[in-house]
Hints:
Helix content: 55-70%
Structural class: alpha+beta
CATH class of the largest domain: Alpha Beta
Number of strands: 5
Number of helices: 6
Mean pLDDT: 84
Strand content: 15-25%
Distance between the termini: 52 Å
CATH architecture of the largest domain: 2-Layer Sandwich
Strand order of the largest sheet: 1-5-4-3-2
Low-confidence stretches: none
Amino acid sequence: MCVLCVVLMLAMLLTGTSQLTAEQTIxxxxxxxxxxxxxxxxxxxxxxxxxxxxxxxxxxxxxxxxRQQIDTAFQAAGFRFxxxxxxxxxxxxxxxxxxxxxxxxxxxxxxxQGKMIxxxxxxxxxxxVVYRLDSYIQMxxxxxx
Length: 145
């Protein structure tokens, strides 16, 4: 939020759309109720973001048996395999722009939990991967039947 505020102020100053000078803008920001409101909004957003920004989802399957489908689902969603550690597969956004759109909070972990494949990470990425992965696994099961 703070970075966004600074970028907007800078853009307004550079384009001449601001009616105030840089000094006046900073003075008003730190000596007004708006700054307190912005600070409160940042604190509330920071406190609640992990709750609504990250999720765990499960898909019926086996990590080892469906590794090709997992890799394909992640690749289709814009992620690439990074490493494997302690029984977890770690994926990250493919390329700088993808990572930037996810605010560099792009790490998604895949692990085996009983008969389920557990996928944990940022909500947007996990939702896209789970949808694709479930479809890919269902296609494999239909082909095997």
